[in-house]
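Entry:
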Amino acid sequence: MEELLARADLAEREADVMRRRSELVDGERHTLDEIGKEYGVTRERIRQLETLARDRLKTVLAGGVPEPRGKRRRRRKPEPGVPEAAPAVPAPVPEVAAPVPEVASPVPETTPPVPPAPKVKGPCMPERQEALF
């Protein structure tokens, strides 16, 4: 089991979680809560670490190579006396204005005037409503 944990390139905490959850420490299976209290994290975080480790182990057992850890690794502190390299600045890209094709507008330049509302003859309210007021 230790060889498998080493081949999976697990972090020390992930390997320890797998050992405790699979009864390799003390001969008993530790709960997520127990492990979380020891590390000072929640049991949900321990569950996440266990899932990550299990996925990496499955990849190794299937004959593959686990993916590199990616961006989560911490940056090394610069050595004293060694100047830190300046970040690479991309070269400016010249702006090229593309010609804008003229498109016929679907709306005419002038809009026709709106006709006035028709005049209503007679009372606006029926006679019964007038009696109410």
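The radius of gyration is 37 Å.
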